[in-house]
Amino acid sequence: MWRHIASNAVTFLLVGLFLLGGIILWGKTTYVSEGPLEQAICVQVERGSNMRQVSQSLEEQGAVSSPALFRMGADYEEKSSSLKAGSFLVQPGTSMQGIVDIVTQGGASTCGTEVVYRVGVNRVSVQVRELDPVTSRFVERAEFTPGEEETPEAYSEISSKNDTRFRVALAEGVTSWQVVEALKQVEQLTGEVEDLPAEGSLAPDSYEVRPGDDRAEVIARMTAAQRVLLAQAFEARDPDLPIETPEELLILASIIEKETGVAAEREQVASVFVNRLNQGMRLQTDPTVIYGVTEGKGVLGRGLRRSELRAETPWNTYVINGLPPTPIANPGRASLMAAAQPAETDFVFFVADGTGGHAFAETLDEHNRNVARWRQIEAERGAEAAGNASTGGN
């Protein structure tokens, strides 16, 4: 009898072990296999949350089939205590193991809302936007000009959340003074910028910042980024350029940046200035005159006067020979590369063509014809504007 009982016990034990092994195998397979999520979602992990709360939220959103298995997998991988607060993008079909990695790996939030301080040439704006997880595109919630417009409720609400990201985005062609003044308006930053950064030394780009970051440290990041870009461009420069130092390349790039907003024209504009330098011609470019008037402190906001074109300032290339002594703005990578590798042309003149771009010329006669066409376009536009004003715009 005892032998029969022992035999049954062994059988039950083997069956139990077999079933346990099957359950473990099923659990492991389910944990690492494609999940049930059909559309991307933003997973919100509040500060102080635990894996039980997160797993229940994931089940409600259709991202996991078993909250218990999700938690057991996190425990097995010893990641339950590594949960990070934030908003995280989870793509369709992400496995439970993949989701655990997403909510425990740390770093910046990859989903949710962000506040972007856009530092443009003509204005500074604050944009509040939220990522749509389905389209992976940001949807604007609010936009305003700080100090000039009333602060929207959406900004106050979103900027106070723990998982909101903050960015400072510099446009190509802004001046160092404009950047410093804009950073003063970023209320999430602390500290003062004691010295104005050298013109041209800041890389136009988008920089993520965190509440409490020091303004001077943000400037240092921008400076380090521009130093790398300038070194790369100078290293890649054409060997026969009339440019001897990285600083001269930076100056030329800043002029190119201010002369055209058409990306496809940068190399042609660069070729005009390089050809003029090679031929000993003055650069005669209006942005250098404007910089001599404003010294980068804001926008001129009007046309240049004849007296200003003749004024002797260190930057006025109608008066001085060669390059001005400093950059006139902060150029981006594309303008740095255009200065380093200009197009091979014989152009020495260009003028606006009425489309936002320029008409280029090799001879003065050709240039004068282009100028006459531009003057005609200006006159026609002026007459049209006057006609619209007299008829109330109809």
Automatic annotation (TrEMBL):
It catalyses: a peptidoglycan chain = a peptidoglycan chain with N-acetyl-1,6-anhydromuramyl-[peptide] at the reducing end + a peptidoglycan chain with N-acetylglucosamine at the non-reducing end. Its EC number is 4.2.2.29. Keywords: Cell inner membrane, Cell membrane, Cell wall biogenesis/degradation, Lyase, Membrane, Transmembrane, Transmembrane helix. It comes from Sulfitobacter profundi. Pfam families: YceG (PF02618). The keyword Cell wall biogenesis/degradation applies. The record marks 259 as: Important for catalytic activity. Belongs to the transglycosylase MltG family. Functions as a peptidoglycan terminase that cleaves nascent peptidoglycan strands endolytically to terminate their elongation. This is Endolytic murein transglycosylase.
